[in-house]
User: Fold this.
Amino acid sequence: LEIPREIRSTLDPLSTDHIYERLRAKALDGETQDVDDTVKYLLVLREEEPNLQMYSALILSQINPITGSALMVESILNEISDEGLSIDSGICEDALKALAVHNDHVLRDELLEYMKDKFIEVSPTGHHYIIAGLLRESQFELALETIDKLESSGIVDIRPWLLDMAIFMLLDVGEVDQAFHLLQLRLDKPEIAISHALWYQFLDAASAEDHYEATRWIWTRRVQTSYLNPPTGVCLAVLATASRHADPHLATDVFRVLGTRKTEFELEHYELLMEAYVSAGELEPALSVLSVMAAAGCEPVGETSRAIYEYLRTRKDGPDEAWRTLRKMKDQFRLIPIEAANVIIESCTALENLDQALTYYKQIPAVVSPLNKKLQGANDGKGSGSSTIRWRTYGSPNTRTFNILLREISRRGRKDLATFLASEMRALGIPPDALTYDRIIITCLK
Assistant:
């Protein structure tokens, strides 16, 4: 047997007992080549007989994920038997540890059967290796059943490292519910803190999988307490989860966190917040989002307020409640964008209440906030054809306002009202679009 020179120079000065201690340490580090060479050295130069210490180290060194293998573990176990040695509990545990890295459920089952026949009990550490092997084989259900059985019976205190491993692996395959169950168990073992990496991955996976309970639980206990500062992408996923599950408080807190990092909110972010409020039946905060948007320079459009529209169109008294809310907000000196009025007027037409829609239209100047916008094309009265700059000091409808009204008017064939609105648009300097002309023409044809 050829023994490398560097191994000889390292081991020659050491006593045999010291060499065995070093052999065990190298095996624990998974240094398979060093262990192989050391065993050769002991056999040849120290004239040691093959023994369980050697075989234990050879098996344990197979924990190396690259140079180790389950096939080698099986070969060494067979060699032990061929040498007439009895496989003891230490050898069994070393083999279980190696098989936790290199999956071979057949060999593991044979080993467990051998232990049972020889009345060798699986140690608490051995149970951990068995569960780790099941996890690596993606036998998650069996692994979780084993964990619950051992914990509930008090046989084994499952260590934090194994629970963390199981949680990570479950999250990787989208099993958030099972991972959340293990998280509760993990929290009962505070001797080793849960890593930031695990918290981040859990929040990311829970929000991505729309697992509301886990998302809210982690956000409340880790983000609101400033323990975690999740990236913007995760925050937006949490916002979407809050919206889908009608949790405006969670959605609002996501906005708080994003606001502290100067995030530029886009229309879809506000829409999610509105949906959360509306789904929870909180109309006033939902309308307030439109106000916040306008104040932030993000002018709401028709698509933005769809959640509010769907809410109001199914409630007979919804438009009236919403309009009273706008008046209240106006009295509080809140900025009221025209879209807040438009969506209420649109819900009136959906409820076929044209008179109420027209009433709200006429009240727009008193409720809607003025826009700081030039009125173009106003002649200065001097015949020069030039335009003066005037600023609107009152709330004004926009093209969408008239198109909403004209849709219901055209359906009823009310030519008088169509003519009235056309003159209103001209007087207010509001440009019509193709839809406006289309609806006026349809009305006149009727």
Notes: Residues 399-446 form one domain. Confidence is low (pLDDT under 50) at residues 372-393. DSSP finds 25 helices and no strands in the chain. Residues 220 and 250 are 8 Å apart (CA to CA).
